[in-house]
Amino acid sequence: MIYEVRTYDLKPRSLPEVLKRFGEAYEKRKQLSQLAAFWYTEIGPLNQIVHVWPYKDLAERGKIRAAAVAAGGWPPKIAEFILSMKSDIMVPWDNSPLLEPGDVGPYFEMRTYTVGPGDQPKVQKAWAAALPVREKLSPVIATWFSEIGGLNKFVHIWPYRTLDERARIRGQAVASGTWPPSAVADAPYSTLTQENKILLAAPFSPLK
Q: Residue 50 needs a FRET pair 20 to 30 A away by CA distance; which of 5, 35, 100, 172 works?
């Protein structure tokens, strides 16, 4: 299983029209394969959309994408609104939940860390020890490493019902003394950069 995470930066005030056109085009595209999630930013880098596509492997991705273009109507006619595009292929950890359709938000916190080269095994070891305690407070819905695109990226995604809930739970996690994992790991790893964004789901997103 892989996830393709496509991130587009849009012109200001274009989001409503982009969502409309993308949603209309997706009605035909989803006959070939369905989205895992489609989000837009609420806090963080504004005017950004993030769409996540699950595939069995790269071969399936290539086959389905070619079939979508050949069928017509894809990609969505939103090029006039796009300022930049980025695609990353992410590989979930063995114990990462699958992104299943459902109502678990509406707020999704996507955190992307760049870790030191070769530190991925250390990250997984530290998180495997810390996550069971942290998830007693709230669930994580994704733990992924980048395979293609920006390298040494670690992405983790957390759903919350409200932003107040997020603040309260994060405070409780730190107060427990077991979070963040990097602070208590017996095999410390380097975190070089951190990015955080709060996302909301589009009306046609299977995961809300």
A: 172
Q: What is the pTM of this model?
A: 0.94
For residue 60, give every residue at least 6 positions away whose Cβ sits within 8 Å of its Cβ, in sequence order, or none.
Answer: none
Architecture (CATH level 2) of domain 2-201: 2-Layer Sandwich (3.30)
Give CA–CA dist 44/7, Å, rounded: 13
The tokens for 158 are: 């957390």
